[in-house]
Each structure stands twice: as structure tokens, then as C-alpha cells.
């Protein structure tokens, strides 16, 4: 897929910066529930090209601002993680549910432009983390 002509790759990965109310609680959640490797600097799952976060202690609770739901959306998203196929997507859903994640949008299928399947979980501060993709296992 090419977005704007063919260019050499300059950016290898990115991460999402989140201000959190309780840094230690968030680090534990990102480790225990989301399955991230958590250090003093970041929370990463599947390497820096997977899903990655920089968790920063907020100066006050008023500084923490999860996104609200957009028009037509069932929940606010702060991060969207693309998953290669529905087998892996279902496995992630089962894993997160078993670990006690707050599921704010159960898996659902959107037909236009897909079919696309996704679900959304919420971290302790209310940040929405969505997971979804097309089914590359479909023939």
C-alpha cells in the first residue's frame, strides 16, 4: 500500500503517550491485563512495531482526558491496534477477558470496507484501546 508516492521508510515505529492518574497502577494493568513488557520508560507488546505506550504521571486528575466516542462510534478510542486476522483478534479478546479487562465494546463485524471486526477495552483511566482488522484467513 502506498499513501503518497513511493518513499523510503524513515519512521520505524511510534508510541502513544498517555497521562495517567496513578502511574504504578497503570504499569501493573498494562503488564497484567494488556500483556505488555513494562519498564520505567514504556509499556510494549510485540516489540516497538506492535503496540507501545509511554505512561506519564499526570500532575492532577484533571489532566487525564480519554477521548469521547466519535459520531457513530460505540466508545471513545485513544489507540487503535491493527490485528492481522480474526483468529488472532479472537485470541486477544479471550486473553483480555480472562485477565479481567473492561470490555466496553464487544466484538462486532462491520461489513462496508471489510468485513472488519473489532472490540474495545478500557484501561484504568478510561482510555479506549481498540483492536480490529479484516480476516486474512478468509478464502
Task: Provide the descriptors you would attach to this structure in a database record.
139 residues; alpha/beta; 2,3-Dihydroxybiphenyl 1,2-Dioxygenase, domain 1; 4-stranded mixed β-sheet; 2 helices; 8 strands; Glyas_Bleomycin-R_OHBP_Dase; VOC_core; Glyas_Fos-R_dOase_dom; VOC family protein
How is this fold's topology laid out?
Elements: E1 16-20, H1 23-32, E2 37-38, E3 43-45, E4 51-57, E5 79-82, H2 86-98, E6 102-110, E7 116-122, E8 128-134
Summarize this entry quickly.
The chain has 139 residues and is of the alpha/beta class. It has helices at residues 23-32, 86-98, and strands spanning 16-20, 37-38, 43-45, 51-57, 79-82, 102-110, 116-122, 128-134.
Main beta sheet: 4 strands, mixed
- CA-to-CA gap between the ends? 21 Å
The total count of helices amounts to: 2
Shape: globular
Would you give an account of this structure?
It holds the Pfam family Glyoxalase. By secondary structure, the chain is α/β, with parallel strands linked by helices. It has a single domain (16-134), classed as 2,3-Dihydroxybiphenyl 1,2-Dioxygenase, domain 1 (Roll), CATH 3.10.180. It has 2 helices and 8 strands; from the N terminus they run βαββββαβββ. Strands 1-4-3-2 form a 4-stranded mixed beta sheet, with helices on one face. A 4-stranded mixed beta sheet has the order 5-8-7-6, covered by helices on one side. The chain is globular and about 40 Å long. The model has no long low-confidence stretch (mean pLDDT 91).
Amino acid at each position: 500500500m502506498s499513501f503518497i508516492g513511493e518513499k523510503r521508510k524513515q519512521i520505524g515505529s511510534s508510541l502513544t503517550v498517555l497521562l495517567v492518574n496513578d502511574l504504578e497502577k497503570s504499569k501493573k494493568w498494562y503488564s497484567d491485563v494488556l500483556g505488555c513488557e513494562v519498564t520505567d520508560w514504556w509499556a510494549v507488546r510485540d516489540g516497538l512495531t506492535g503496540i507501545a505506550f509511554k505512561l506519564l504521571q499526570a500532575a492532577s486528575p484533571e489532566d487525564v482526558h480519554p477521548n469521547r466516542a466519535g459520531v457513530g462510534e460505540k466508545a471513545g478510542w485513544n489507540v487503535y491496534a491493527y490485528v492481522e486476522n480474526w483468529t488472532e483478534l479472537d485470541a486477544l479478546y479471550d486473553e483480555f477477558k480472562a485477565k479481567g479487562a473492561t470490555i466496553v465494546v464487544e466484538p462486532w463485524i462491520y461489513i462496508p470496507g471489510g468485513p472488519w471486526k473489532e472490540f474495545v477495552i478500557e484501561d484504568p483511566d478510561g482510555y479506549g484501546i481498540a483492536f480490529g482488522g479484516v480476516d486474512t484467513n478468509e478464502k
